């Protein structure tokens, strides 16, 4: 039977060189939860077994536990994308490669455990740009990186423009009102 669902990814996982979790997102909306991986303990067991199976493998695609698993190793970080067994491997590969390259652009081509953890917010946003609740949204790494980097600058510009438009007296009145409200609580 052909898979006609938009939900392509069951999980996206990033592990370090020892198999420890850096980031893991399991998607279950619109499809069945990955069997047996509902609790944190079961997820970590699955991730450990997956790491031990793939750490010395030279390929990029395997079938593991009845699921299609794509993985990529960059320095000391392992990226995994898990899909349904009947999912198109080329689509999953495009999503995984687009995400990894987008993260590489965001981290200035320095993907390692330390830089990934230091910029965890941008990496999670990049993952959300590429995959939303199991649906592949974006495969172009430049678009993923630009969308993530735009979010940070938009909020800064808005707050600076508000400061420029306020006069000193308006800012004083607003601070006084907030102070009074805080005292009343």
Task: Explain what the structure shows.
By secondary structure, the chain is an alpha+beta fold. The protein is 50% helix and 20% strand. The chain contains six helices and seven strands. The chain has a five-stranded antiparallel sheet with strand order 2-1-5-4-3, with helices on both faces. A two-stranded antiparallel sheet has the order 6-7. Strand 3 and strand 4 form a beta hairpin. The longest helix is centred in the C-terminal third of the chain and has 25 residues.
Short account of what is shown:
The protein has 185 residues and is α+β, with helices and mostly antiparallel strands. It is 50% helix and 20% strand.
Largest sheet: 5 strands, antiparallel
End-to-end Cα distance, whole Å, is 61 Å
Compute the average pLDDT. 80
Order of helix and strand elements from N to C terminus: EEHEEEHHHEEHH
Count of helix runs: 6
Low-confidence stretches: 152-161
Structural classification: alpha+beta
Round the Cα radius of gyration to an integer and report it: 21 Å
The fraction of residues assigned to DSSP E strands is 15-25%
| Percent helix | 40-55%
Oligomer: single chain
Q: Outline, from the CA principal axes?
A: elongated
For the secondary structure, the number of strands is 7
Order of strands in the sheet with the most strands?
2-1-5-4-3
């Amino acid at each position: 039977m052909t898979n006609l669902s938009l939900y392509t990814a069951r999980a996206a996982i990033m592990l370090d060189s020892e198999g420890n979790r850096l980031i893991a997102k399991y998607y279950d909306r619109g499809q069945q939860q990955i069997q047996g991986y509902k609790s944190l303990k079961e997820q970590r067991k699955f991730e450990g077994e997956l790491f031990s199976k793939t750490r010395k493998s030279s390929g990029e695609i395997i079938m593991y536990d009845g699921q299609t698993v794509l993985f990529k190793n960059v320095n000391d970080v392992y990226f995994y994308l898990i899909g349904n067994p009947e999912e198109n491997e080329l689509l999953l590969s495009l999503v995984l490669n687009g995400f990894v390259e987008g993260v590489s652009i965001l981290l200035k081509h320095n993907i390692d455990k330390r830089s990934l953890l230091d910029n965890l917010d941008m990496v999670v946003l990049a993952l959300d740009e590429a995959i939303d609740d199991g649906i592949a949204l974006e495969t172009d790494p430049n678009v993923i990186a630009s969308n993530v980097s735009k979010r940070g600058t938009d909020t800064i510009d808005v707050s600076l423009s508000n400061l420029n438009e306020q006069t000193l007296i308006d800012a004083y009145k607003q601070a006084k009102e907030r102070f009074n409200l805080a005292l009343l609580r």
